Amino acid sequence: MEETISQKELKARKILENLVQDNRIFMDTCSIIDASDLFWKHIKPFLTKYEKKIIVPTRCCEELVKKSRDEKDAGLAKTANTRLFLLQTLQTEGFVEFRGEKTDNFADNVFLSVFTKFRLQHNLLLITQDNKLAQDIVNLNNSGSQKSVHIVKVRRINKYNYFKKTKPMNRPKHCVLSQ
């Protein structure tokens, strides 16, 4: 039986493909936790087609390790463990690349630093569920002192495991980290 695809899903796939094709892609801890296997099923063919990898800062991995030991939230700990294993698998398959330096502090600051530095040379995309981080990253496009032909974009993973633009909302509980 052949699967039929709705016009909305075709549009969502095209948007996903264009974002993968046109950007260097980064992913934060919240989205790693929220991304289901279906999200990876959707994005992997485009990562392969355009020979791209999703960059995950090592600080995000450290945050996942910390969450995997959360004794107050067993569900979150289990999810974090599962995602750590998945990230290792995705790295082995060539879909994820870990990057970081010893001088990096917490993950949100790493994204701000990296995006500020490289937005003048590349189109950048951050996948995040964290609205405050999303706003800080998007605001880089409004810099008065550094004009760029490149665009910084932020997308969140929606309930259908595709992308949607970020809109103001509360920060998910699993995005709140102690510094």
**Count of alpha/pi helices:** 7
Overall body shape: globular
Question: What would the average pLDDT be, to the nearest integer?
Answer: 87
- Secondary structure class reads alpha/beta
Strand order within the widest beta sheet:
3-2-1-4-5-6
**How many distinct beta strands?**
6
Rg, nearest Å: 16 Å
- What fraction strand? 5-15%
> N- to C-terminal separation?
51 Å
Helix content: 40-55%
Main sheet properties: 6 strands, mixed
Poorly predicted regions are 168-172
Secondary-structure element order, as H and E?
HEHHEHHEHEHEE
Concise account of the structure shown:
The protein is of the alpha/beta class and 179 residues long.
Structure description:
By secondary structure, the chain is α/β, with parallel strands linked by helices. Helices cover 48% and strands 14% of the residues. The protein has seven helices and six strands. The chain has a six-stranded mixed beta sheet, sandwiched between helices. The radius of gyration is 16 Å and the shape is globular.
